[in-house]
Specification:
The complex is a heterotrimer.
Chain A lengths: L9 H4 L4 H29 L10 H36 L7 H20 L27 H28 L12 H32 L13 H35 L6 H15 L14 H13 L1 H15 L8 H24 L1 H7 L3 H31 L1 E2 L2 H28 L13 H31 L1 E2 L33
Antiparallel strand pairs in A: 1-2
Helix pairs in contact in A: 2-3, 2-4, 2-15, 3-5, 3-7, 3-13, 4-5, 5-6, 6-7, 6-8, 7-8, 7-10, 7-11, 7-13, 8-10, 11-13, 11-14, 13-14, 13-15, 14-15
Chain B lengths: L1 H21 L4 H6 L10 H34 L15 H30 L6 E8 L2 E6 L4 E5 L5 H4 L17 E4 L3 E8 L4 E5 L4 E5 L5 E6 L4 E7 L12 E6 L1 H21 L6 H15 L1 H4 L23 H10 L15 H13 L11 H9 L2
Parallel strand pairs in B: 1-5, 4-10
Antiparallel strand pairs in B: 1-2, 2-3, 5-8, 6-7, 6-9, 9-10
Chain C lengths: L14 H20 L5 H26 L5 H40 L9 H4 L12 H6 L24 H24 L3 H32 L7 H33 L9 H26 L2
Helix pairs in contact in C: 1-2, 3-8, 3-9, 6-7, 6-9, 7-8, 8-9
The chains are: A mainly alpha, B alpha+beta, C mainly alpha.
The complex binds heme-A (2 copies), dinuclear copper ion and copper (II) ion.
Chain lengths: 517, 382, 301
């Protein structure tokens, strides 16, 4: 029982330890973030000026597609699974995850899936080029042959997500320390419990969608072909039935992280804990019944149009509760502004802006103008980069001292924050303007009136990208030579079981269950 | 602290300031730095603009309120100012209030939204119908009931795209032949596609609708002001997605009728031309031009295609095999691939020229000459 | 909530990485194989995966028999199986959902109904019907159509042909098997081992009979009814729904067979039979899916 980690590479290949697996997930996701970010840099470099400069249009489409896929499935989702692996057992007083061997399997599928996906870049016909939403029939009849690798890659990646989620649910429902009732669970655990449920519900739907594609491409079925009685729009329904919950899969754990950081640095308990829980659950529920707001222009009957508009607008209500709760937590607190808190505050501001543009797009008539324009690109980078990535960064700064017993350099952290914040806004705020002025997304080249804002946006993107290198430097430096810390509680205002463990956290978390009052 | 507050203000106010400047006299600059939706020239686009502005301002006001409180507490309740944390963590009244108020705001938003979307959907009582078909990467316009139909594709030359020539004013927003419609007329668009999904978007009309293969979707417009309006394909449709713009020329009704008459005469003249016999040189010259316009986007100007996606047309391909097979591929396309049926898109003259060109260009040198009449015969023989 | 005073901490294991390698090779190999390339990688992967899973399950069984599993871990297995089945439910939901969408919305639209009158520009007098025997393609392109509808379909053939209607027999077989597996379950709970073996054996046999009948039906469809994957949306939905169901019956039968063999070896007792129980849940799930299929694919047509 008392043994430490195994030596050598075997430690990582064969591990069943939730912290090791969490670490693997986090590094993997960071590598994918750099890869996806690199693709984004290629996109932004090409869009720096009108005209085709560095790549061909067909390659541009591959970049856009791979960027979206790698970021969503390779960077953001694994990052939060990594955090879940690290933190959930620590937060609920468990020794490890419920099913440790399956946990390792869930992780190790990912490198195979993404190696397969990335290898298509070097194959004849090139990588997937049909957008991360891979609408049929562009992704079926008109796709390069490599689409088959993409399909099977998605299949095994889905298997990984489902196993990961089953593990989280089993852990949370089954491994809590005595006295830790559901309504005493930390918010991060709650958000992940609900996220895991969403994942199990929708990953099979994605698997179904790619399976239909596989059949249409190779076996002559006609799901998406009107000639045989099918419908290309069916694909979109299936995809978005997965895809919309997917975006909340991305953001709910981020909400969880913020719900820990804001109280800590406000030195005040989270305001409205139970309404936070109910809001999370409502968001998850609503996410299943709003999917066709991505399809306002496919010509569905007016009744559907109205229903999906109203249902989508409703999501603003529980989300509002969350924002107000965070602000009330800060209100009359005793605040300090260390790097994690800076990222958390930026999250609140920028996510709200992104949420509002989401709400504008939920208005079906105005979505006629916004749909498939850069306005949307701006929207989802506000919620996904300033939302998910900022909160992920905040989480790493927040917990890194706990994980490795070393403190990061505060000045460098703040510098990274400000460069990120400024770069991010220069990169993505002008995209609202571009979209409203009429620039469609997924364009390899554009008309002259869009030149100026595009150039500014590219410059911002490069600044933001550079900030990520700073982040990497910062983290590695901390791990190798940060100032050692040993207090169980890194932050004055931090609460929760994870802060009762020794720093750095012992290899085996809770050997005996802690008592929760 | 105050730096942070400034930042936020800049963030909220940037669009506001920019909005004001876009209304100013600096029209040219304003277009380059455009930050807002165009108001547009149709009832629907105006209604959309209104609702867009209403919701935008509601959001700005909420932002100011919410961030105001946040920045106030960030200022007043910071530890460095000696703030001591309170310990409250619940207040049912407050929580109910901030659930109910947003819900009410949403209802306020939903009312104009509902009427506008119903208006945008109302395609009834149109005075004329135009069928719009999306192809990889061009549009076909058919005036239903008028026997007039033509293709409309990008006319910006490769040299501008690949930066070997200076870019003209309407770079990527100019086409070989614009759609022409009459002003002050309710025109219904019937949209569909032959291959993948496209989306037909003219911002100034407030019209964007997906063109879905195998289904017909509907939209409509009523343009007050004659003029030239530009738009683009808004749904990812392959490598030429950014290169299939839309130009609509709105004419006064009389001018439109005159145009329609000319157009019909032109169609008849082209049919006539198909009976003529051309020399090989004529066909090669015409063929190169038409090939570069219609085929080079996939098979490339040098006939080498893109390996793995679009086949080359050199030795070993159908372009040097039996003529009948070559004709069949070009006229009827290859079902289930990106190779479209060009029989209905191009005139017999163009088809004959392209095929002759393909069979003799890039060192193919088969020596075969195909005449328009051969195409006609081939089509009739089917 | 846990009540134990100390926890089970797992050892390192080589199994997961082997399974992941197997899956990776399967994905790579399948992608190569479907486009006409070699199937080597696929089968290599399948072999690795099968072997790994065999070792993995053997290990789990051994651990359990050795009494190493805490109650907590057992509960985790229960949760795991439950949520796995839920994910399968969602997978089938996609295909049922697609069937409903096609039947109630897309086909009438193609037939120019429901506000989609303009579709007659493309498909002329195509009329929506279910089962779809005449595809839009056939209406528009006649003999040149790529998607030719089936000559016959699988719907209820009328009361006079009732007894020769395979789906009915399939339904009877599967529903019976749900009861037999339940009898086996009760038997083992009462520690009646021989009864357990008998009824579980019968269940496995019924599963096998179902599969044979299903294959029979497919052969008939392909050879005599002109009903194939390619015959438009009816063939598509028919084969995809019944096909995935059949694949799950195969899985379920194998799972039950393994439990049967374990039963013969004397595993399970009235206290602990989760291995069997999990398989039986899966079996009930597969059964319920079939009832859905029988109603929506065969009867309501
Ligand atoms: C993390 C990911 C994430 C999140 C959280 C969201 C959140 C929301 N999104 Fe977004 N969305 C995406 C990721 C995300 N989205 C992506 C990736 C796409 C594009 C996919 C593609 O096509 O590639 C997309 C596209 C997209 C569309 C489709 C547009 C189109 O294609 O035409 C729509 C339309 O309704 C939409 C709406 C919304 C809404 C209403 C929310 C709401 O949840 C927002 C709620 C939040 C707020 C409203 C702000 C806070 C609230 C208050 C401060 C309270 C007061 C408010 C009021 C009373 C109004 N999103
Ligand atoms: C969570 C997901 C996520 C994240 C984090 C990002 C991050 C970024 N995205 Fe994102 N993006 C998507 C999800 C995401 N994106 C999705 C789903 C789409 C839609 C795809 C589709 O249409 O199908 C999209 C589309 C998309 C587009 C539109 C493309 C198009 O329509 O053609 C653009 C264009 O600017 C863009 C830019 C960026 C930039 C600059 C970043 C930056 O934040 C990235 C910053 C990170 C780095 C830069 C990496 C670190 C640095 C290096 C590797 C070294 C090199 C650095 C330099 C040279 C400076 N993205
Ligand atoms: Cu056509 Cu994009
Ligand atoms: Cu959505």
């Amino acid at each position: 029982m008392a043994h430490g980690p195994a030596k050598g590479i075997g430690r990582w290949l064969f591990t069943t330890n939730h912290k090791d697996i969490g670490t693997l997930y986090l590094w993997f996701s960071f590598a994918m973030f750099l890869l996806g970010g690199f693709f984004a840099m290629v996109i932004r470099a090409e869009l720096f000026e009108p005209g085709m400069q560095i790549i061909k249009p067909e390659f541009f489409n591959q970049m856009t597609t791979m960027h979206g896929l790698v970021m969503v499935f390779g960077a953001i989702m694994p990052a939060f699974v990594g955090l879940a692996n690290w933190m959930i057992p620590m937060m609920i007083g468990a020794p490890d995850m419920a099913l440790p061997r399956m946990n390792n399997l869930s992780f190790w599928i990912l490198p195979f899936a993404f190696a397969l996906l990335a290898s298509t870049l070097f194959m004849e016909g090139g990588a997937p080029n049909f957008g991360w939403t891979f609408y049929a029939p562009l992704s079926t009849t008109y796709a390069p042959d490599t689409v088959n690798y993409f399909i099977f890659g998605v299949h095994i990646m889905g298997a990984s997500s489902i196993m990961g989620s089953i593990n989280i649910i089993a852990t949370v429902l089954n491994m809590r320390a005595p006295g830790m009732t559901l309504m005493k669970m930390p918010m991060f655990v709650w958000t992940w419990l609900i996220t895991a449920f969403l994942l199990i519900a929708v990953m099979p739907v994605l698997a179904g969608a790619v399976t239909m594609m596989l059949m249409d491409i190779n076996f002559g079925t006609s799901f998406f072909s009107a000639a045989g009685g099918g419908d290309p729009v069916l694909f979109q329904h299936v995809f978005w039935f997965f895809g919309h919950p997917e975006v909340y899969i991305i953001i709910l754990p981020a909400f969880g992280v913020i719900s820990h950081i804001v109280p800590t640095f406000s030195r005040k308990p989270l305001f409205g804990y139970s309404s936070m829980v109910y809001a999370t659950a409502s968001i998850a529920f609503l996410s299943f019944i709003v999917w066709a707001h991505h399809m306002f222009l496919v010509g569905m009957p007016i009744g559907g149009e109205l229903y999906f508009m109203y249902a989508t607008m409703l999501i603003a209500v529980p989300t509002a509760a969350k924002i107000f709760n965070w602000i009330s937590t800060m209100f009359r607190g005793s605040m300090t502004f260390e790097t994690p808190m800076l990222f958390a505050i930026a999250f609140i501001i920028l996510f709200t802006i992104g949420g509002f543009t989401g709400l504008m797009m939920a208005i079906a008539p105005s979505d006629i103008q916004y749909h498939d324009s850069y306005f949307i690109v701006a929207h989802f980078h506000y919620v996904m980069v300033a939302g998910a990535v900022f909160s992920g960064t905040a989480a790493v700064y927040y917990w890194l001292p706990k994980w490795c017993g070393k403190m990061y350099d505060e000045t460098m952290g703040k510098v990274q924050f400000w460069v990120s914040f400024v770069g991010f806004n220069i990169a993505f705020f002008p995209q609202h303007f571009l979209g409203l002025a009429g620039m469609p997304r997924r364009y390899a080249d554009y008309a002259l009136q869009f030149s100026d804002w595009n150039m500014i946006s590219s410059v911002g993107a490069f600044i933001y990208g550079a900030a990520q290198l700073l982040f990497m430097f910062n983290v590695i430096r901390t791990i190798r030579s940060g100032t050692p810390v040993s207090e169980p509680k890194t932050w004055e205002g931090a609460e929760g079981l994870e802060w009762t463990l020794a720093t750095p956290v012992p290899y085996h978390t809770f050997a005996t269950p802690p008592e929760v009052k | 602290m105050s730096r942070r507050a400034n930042m936020l203000f800049a963030l909220v106010l940037a669009p506001v300031l920019a909005l004001i400047s876009s209304g100013s006299a600096l029209a040219e600059e304003a277009q380059r730095w455009a930050v807002n939706l165009p108001k547009g020239v149709t009832p629907v686009s105006n209604a959309i603009y209104e609702i867009h502005m209403i919701i935008f301002w509601i959001c700005v006001v909420i932002c100011i309120g919410v961030f105001g409180v946040m920045f106030y507490s960030m200022y007043a309740h910071r530890k460095s100012r000696g703030a001591v944390a309170a310990n409250f963590h619940e207040n049912t009244t407050a929580e109910v209030v901030w659930t109910v108020i947003p819900a009410l705001i949403l209802v306020v938003m939903a009312i104009p939204a509902t009427s506008t979307i119903i208006q945008a959907y109302d395609t009834s009582e149109a005075e004329m119908d135009i069928k719009i078909t999306g192809y990889q990467w061009k549009w076909q316009y058919e005036y239903l009931g008028e026997d007039v139909a033509f293709m409309s594709e990008l006319s910006t030359p490769e040299s501008e795209i690949y930066n070997t020539a200076p870019k003209s004013q309407y770079y990527l927003q100019e086409v070989t032949e614009p759609l022409v419609i009459p002003a002050k007329t309710k025109v219904r668009f019937l949209l569909t596609a032959k291959d993948v999904i496209h989306s037909w978007w003219i911002p100034d009309f407030g019209v964007k609708k997906d063109a879905i293969p195998g289904y017909v979707t509907e939209s409509w417009t009523f343009v007050e002001e004659p003029g030239v309006y530009r738009g683009e394909c808004a749904e990812l449709c392959g490598k030429g997605h950014a290169f299939m713009p839309i130009v609509v020329n709105v004419l006064e009704k009389e001018e439109y009728n005159a145009w329609l008459g000319e157009k019909k005469a032109e169609v008849a003249a082209i049919r006539e031309l198909a009976k003529k016999t051309f020399t090989k040189e004529e066909l090669m010259a015409k063929g190169k031009e038409a090939y570069d316009r219609s085929c080079a986007s996939c098979h490339m100007g040098n006939g080498e295609g893109i390996p793995g996606v679009f086949p080359g047309l050199k030795e070993g391909s159908a372009a040097v095999g039996p003529v009948a097979n070559h004709l069949d591929v070009v006229v009827n396309g290859v079902a289930g691939t990106a190779m479209q049926a060009f029989g209905g898109q191009l005139s017999e003259v163009d088809l004959a020229a392209i095929i002759t060109y393909e069979r003799n260009a890039w060192g193919n040198d088969t020596g075969d000459v195909v005449q328009p009449i051969d195409i006609l015969k081939f089509k009739q023989g089917q | 909530m846990s009540t134990e005073s100390s926890y089970y901490v797992p050892e390192q294991s080589k199994l997961p990485i082997c399974a992941a390698t197997g899956l990776g090779l399967i994905a790579l190999g399948a992608g190569t194989w479907v486009k006409g390339g070699s199937s080597m990688a696929f089968f290599a992967g399948a072999l690795i995966l099968a072997f790994t899973l065999y070792s993995w399950f053997s290990l789990v069984i051994k651990e359990n028999m050795a009494g190493m599993n805490s109650d907590q871990l057992k509960r985790s297995y229960v949760w795991g199986m439950g949520w796995f089945i839920f994910s399968e439910v969602m997978f089938f939901a996609v295909f049922f959902g697609s069937l409903f969408y096609i039947r109630t919305l897309a086909l009438p639209w193609l037939g120019s109904e429901g506000g989609f009158e303009s579709n007659n520009l493309l498909w002329g007098d195509f009329e929506a019907a279910w089962p779809l025997m005449t595809t839009p393609d056939m209406v528009a392109n006649g003999e040149a159509a790529q998607f030719m509808g089936p000559e016959q379909n699988m719907s209820f053939p009328g009361w006079d042909k009732l007894l020769g209607w395979l789906p009915l027999w399939n339904t009877i077989v599967l529903i019976t098997s749900s009861f037999t597996v339940h009898i086996a379950h009760t038997a083992i709970k009462n520690n009646n081992r021989s009864k357990f073996n008998l009824w579980l054996g019968i269940t496995v046999a019924l599963g096998a009979i179902f599969l044979v009948l299903q294959v029979e039906e497919y052969i008939h469809a392909y050879q005599h009814m002109g009903l194939t994957l390619e015959s438009g949306i009816y063939g598509t939905t028919f084969f995809m729904l019944t096909g995935f169901h059949g694949a799950h019956v195969t899985m379920g039968t194998i799972m039950l067979l393994i439990q049967f063999l374990r039963g013969l070896k004397g595993h399970f007792n009235s206290e602990d039979q989760f291995g069997f129980e999990a398989a039986s849940w899966y079996w009930h799930f597969v059964d319920v899916v079939w009832v859905g299929l029988f109603i929506f694919v065969y009867i309501l047509a």
